[in-house]
Amino acid sequence: MDYGRDPIFPEGFLWGASSAAWQVEGGVAEGGRTPAIIDLNSKTKKPYADNSIAADHYHHWKEDVQLMAECGFTSYRFSLAWPRIIPTSDGKINPEGIQFYNDLIDELLAHNITPIVTLYHYDMPVWVDELGGWRDRRVIELFDHYVRVCFEAFGDRVKYWLSINEQNMQIVYGKWLGLDKGCADWEKDKWRINHIMNLCHAKAVIACHELVEGGKIGPVPGYVPIYPESCKPLDQIAAMNAEELTEKIWNDLYAFREYSGFVKQYWKLHDIDPDIRPGDMELIGQAKIDYFALNCYRSNVAKDCPKEESYLELALNKEGKKGQFVYPKFPGEYALAPNPYVETTDWDWEIDPVAMRYMLRYVWDHYRLPMMITENGLGAHEQVGPDGQVHDANRIAFLRDQIYQVGLAIEDGCEVIGYNPWSFTDLLSTGNGMAKRYGLVYINTTDEETLDLRRIPKDSFYWYSRLIRSNGRDW
Ligand code: BG6
């Protein structure tokens, strides 16, 4: 539909931005925090960048919240670091970790900024990993203990909770994120790991409803809408296969609390045992989510890939030089292909604002649950200009187009309660450290050299501020 006028955002819409603990905090050996698996990755696995300082939010949190307030934020999405809260295997709570987040939450609330809190965003404590991490069912009780501590400590003030960030992407890109450690056959083992993660998600949902008065909790799928390459009927089925195998299997489980016929058939066909034990599905059955938090940056195109074709492994663009992404082929399921209708970033991510509207309509049509955007943004090479400012016109154009499509989806009848792009300040990218910047606020440091970590609001900060203050009218 063309509405013939700019979209209208509802009153009370949550306007903010996002971050994750390991990507923004630094202070990894301070305040009683112990190492996380991601700390080890970032030291050994190039091009991950060392996260021991990151954006140094651990020491700049007050200044950062002040900047959010100046921008006019009404929400801020961030994650809690499990190894800051439960640093050791005896399960003892670290009072300094609790204090850090208490101070942050209180400061946000003092500025009328609603905290939206992710329980898990890739920083599993090393002590949990040594017990087997997501591979071992003992993690279910350990995670349950951790989330209960969080709900009890912060649930009086935090009402919006998120369980596990991008569980689907952690499984789909498990090799890239190091989840395949200790797995003999990742393609089969990942479904067992995924089932354990589903049980952890369920524990978090149940505990939130038990312990947080008025608490709402949802999952955070990483969402990449997939279009068929052509109107050839088999391209449509390929797009549906890709959709199932990268996102729908997860979203169906969260929303309907049972595994879909598609995934059960997939397991049968590939001789996969996800190790579902008595009582598991009853637990999942109790985990009724309140909303979907959605991370969406780009779209993909899928085409038919007959069984006879050869498998081709996906290769991510790790340097920010266009043209390095390798479109994978999964014979008998689908192949990904370039989209001639959209531009791409330097990391070969499709710049496709319409995908945002597509995703919101798709998720609304399938699940009829409120939705919140918890990530969306442009990763770019950036420097401070000779005038001491950062002129990120590309980011303004990106955000404007994307937010406009959120507005159109709202006009289309979708219930969307907030928009929190990635990211507030520059922070470490999972793919390229500080070389790939997403922030509305520049952090003066690089992967090669730690500089003064000065905060410099970019042009996008001022543009976004005007948009927020007009509740989405001043484009
Ligand atoms: C999301 C993650 O997948 O994408 C974030 O939740 C991540 O942690 C973001 O930073 C952007 O990806 P990247 O690889 O550019 O950092």
Automatic annotation (TrEMBL):
PANTHER family: ARYL-PHOSPHO-BETA-D-GLUCOSIDASE BGLC (PTHR10353:SF136), GLYCOSYL HYDROLASE (PTHR10353)
Name this polypeptide is given: Glycoside hydrolase family 1 protein
UniProt keyword terms in alphabetical order: Glycosidase, Hydrolase
InterPro entries per UniProt: GH, Glyco_hydro_1
Annotated Pfam families: Glyco_hydro_1
GO terms, biological process: carbohydrate catabolic process
Family, similarity comment: Belongs to the glycosyl hydrolase 1 family.
Keyword Acetylation among record annotations: no
One GO MF term attached to the UniProt entry: beta-glucosidase activity
Coiled-coil annotated spans: none
GO CC terms: cytosol
